[in-house]
Amino acid sequence: MESKVCTKCNKNLAISEYYTITSKYGSTYTYNYCKKCHYTHSTKAIAKKWRKDNKERWHVDVKKATKAYHGRQSKGVYLLVTTKGLYIGATDKFESRIQQHRTSNFGGNMKFKGAKVLYATLVQEVNDRKERLEAEKRWIKKLRPSLNLVFNSDYKKESKIGGKYIKK
Ligand SMILES: [Zn+2]
Question: Does the global pTM surpass 0.85?
Answer without folding.
Answer: no
